[in-house]
Specification:
Elements: H1 4-22, H2 29-36, H3 40-53, E1 58-62, E2 70-74, H4 87-102, H5 109-122, H6 127-130, H7 133-136, H8 154-166, E3 170-175, E4 181-193, E5 198-204, E6 207-215, E7 219-224, H9 240-245, E8 258-264, H10 269-272, E9 282-285, E10 291-297, H11 300-307, E11 314-318, H12 320-338
Antiparallel strand pairs: 1-2, 3-4, 3-7, 4-5, 5-6, 8-10, 8-11, 9-10
Helix pairs in contact: 1-4, 2-3, 4-5, 11-12
Length: 340
């Protein structure tokens, strides 16, 4: 579900775009912070973002009254960088446009509607994703995602998202599963939302070759290290989708994916055929009405837990480790009931 914080952040950025476009003498960092109701540091990060992606459009001049104070303004219409606009950001942009309409703020509206149309056209080859925009663009109170989960502190989540977007490092205090508290300097790469836990995928500052996962709700502190640079680190060839494809569910083991095979009974074959269990899956219809589902991934515990939902109608066939994990979890659950 796209969060209201995402909508508000886009509205905030669009308000700043408007103000920097219509104010002929430009705005200082302090004036931006005052208009947006944020800290000066946050105002500096926003200008840093504009410098990075809209450098040709952003003019930087010194104030006539105070030679040490800089003013910023846009000199011509913006061209949005398409490669940095994910599906969620497109949805948020669409929602922000609706909010601007509701508030009768007309100045950037025509350009923004044009940009959104261009972006949607650019993504037309991914139509199966765009089909979801209709219901995701509804107001948040009309779209819910109820499931058992641990709440993540809103400020921690927003700092993580900002750091990912701006390639900023994070100063973190993390509580491990053992109870030990440890400090990290992290280079965040993305967020994976799981059924029970949400994970921040990041490099440790001193280990930039191997991405690691951190449970978002386990962060006691997570703050952006603001050094004033545009990009504090480079993501290299890392691709979040490829990374996620190596495991089942959100938890990633960093081990070589296994060849997995499940069998769905004839009773649930029609329903199972409609599911995307994993991005790499192949589904084969068998003569007896059953289905054979194959894919490559890690996450044996997550697979076994998921298969319980099918009440024995979908069972693991390969690898042996998965079958053993499934049986052991069944035995443990059965014994726990017998002991009561």
């Amino acid at each position: 579900m796209v969060e209201r914080a995402n909508y508000d952040k886009f509205e905030e950025m669009l308000t700043l775009i408007r103000d920097l476009s219509v104010d002929s003498i430009g705005l200082t960092y302090d004036e931006i912070a005052e208009r947006l109701g944020c800290s000066r540091k946050k105002a500096e990060r926003k200008i840093s973002f504009f410098k990075q992606y809209f450098e040709e459009n952003l003019e930087e001049v010194y104030d006539n009254q105070n030679p040490r104070t800089k003013r910023f303004f846009f000199t011509k219409p913006l061209q949005f960088p398409r490669e940095h606009l994910t599906e969620d950001k497109i949805i948020a942009l669409d929602t922000a446009i609706k909010k601007i309409k509701d508030k009768n703020i007309s100045s950037p509206l025509k350009d923004l509607q044009y940009y959104l149309k261009q972006i949607m056209s650019f993504h037309s080859e991914n139509k199966h994703k765009m089909d979801n925009l209709g219901y995701k663009s509804l107001k948040e109170e009309c779209v819910l995602n109820p499931h058992p989960h641990i709440e993540t502190d809103t400020e921690i989540l927003e700092n993580a998202k900002d750091a990912i977007f701006y390639c900023q490092k994070l100063d973190c205090l993390y509580k491990k599963s053992t109870g030990e508290k440890k400090t990290y300097t992290l280079c965040p790469l993305g967020i994976l939302y799981g059924s029970s836990n949400d994970y921040l995928v990041a490099y440790e500052d001193k280990h930039m070759n191997t991405p690691k996962q951190f449970i978002l709700s386990n962060f006691l502190k997570l703050k952006i290290i603001d050094s004033g640079t545009r990009n504090q680190f480079k993501t290299g060839t890392f691709n979040l989708q490829n990374y996620a494809n190596e495991s089942f569910g959100a938890y990633h083991t960093n081990e070589k994916p296994l060849n997995v095979e499940w069998r769905a009974s004839a009773n649930v074959a029609k329903d199972a055929e409609r599911y995307t269990f994993h991005p790499t899956q192949t589904i084969t219809k068998n003569a007896n009405g059953t289905l054979t589902i194959k894919f490559k991934a890690n996450g044996l515990y997550e697979m076994a837990t998921y298969l319980f939902q099918w009440r024995g109608e979908i069972v693991p066939v390969k690898p042996k480790e998965l079958v053993d994990t499934y049986k052991n979890m069944l035995d443990t659950a059965s014994k726990s009931l017998e002991n009561k």
